[in-house]
Amino acid sequence: MEQELMMALAKAGGYAAVGLAAIGSSMGAGMAGAAAIGAWKKCYQQDKPAPFLLLAMAGAPLSQTIYGMIMMILINGAAAENPQNWPLYLTIGIFGGLAQMFSATFQGKAAAGGCNSFAETNQGFANDLMILGVIETCAIFALVFSIMAM
Fold first, then answer.
1. What DSSP character marks residue 122?
2. Helix, strand, coil percentages for the chain (3-state, nearest 5)
3. Cβ within 8 Å of residue 95, ≥6 positions away
4. pLDDT value at residue 10
5. How far is CA 116 from the centre of its chain?
6. 3-state secondary structure string across 40-95
7. Run of H or E residues at 150
8. How many Å from the N-terminal Cα to the C-terminal Cα in the chain?
């Protein structure tokens, strides 16, 4: 196989990792952000202060894009040294990116619930963040296992 084609296919794995992660981050942040806006609206209607902390929950799914970027950088670096391993890099990028995407999406869904809960009760913020951290752990595991596989 031609060297340039092998490099392109290997790099496609890196771009898949960051692209899929960014899709998940967008979906997760969109769900959580919509919930935060709705929760703030409820607070305004009840003449309660709108908790700024909901922004932290809405932004939680963004870290998976960073993990996808790290995967892309590492895949591109490994591909520069061993482009003949392009099937491995492409596979790692796709499945690692999907893991990031699902983690971010479901983290956003959980964050949406946390936004609603915290805005209504003004309690449980730390517990909500711990749940988001559990979901984040899946993304970190996917990143670490991808690095180990390379």
1. S
2. 90, 0, 10
3. none
4. 95
5. 21
6. HHHHHHCCCCCCCCHHHHHHHHHHHHHHHHHHHHHHHHHHHHCHHHHHHHHHHHHH
7. none
8. 21
> Which two structure tokens, joined as six digits, stand for 114?
């946390």
Return mean pLDDT, the chain. Answer: 96
Q: Which of 61, 40, 27, 30 is nearest to 115 (CA)?
A: 40
pTM of the predicted model over 0.85: yes
- Tokens for 56? 């932290």
Q: What angle do CA 121, 126, 128 make, to 5 degrees?
A: 70
Length of the chain, in residues: 150
Q: What is the per-residue pLDDT across 116-127, written as a single tens digit (0 to 9) for each?
A: 999 999 999 999
Give CA–CA dist 127/108, Å, rounded: 15
Tokens of 119: 């805005």
The 10 Å Cβ neighbour count of residue 50 is 15
Whole-angstrom Cα distance, residue 106 to residue 134? Answer: 11
Q: Please give the C-alpha separations between residue 111 and each of 13, 30, 100, in angstroms, as whole numbers.
A: 29, 10, 16
What is the C-alpha to C-alpha distance for residues 111 and 32, in angstroms, rounded to an integer? 5
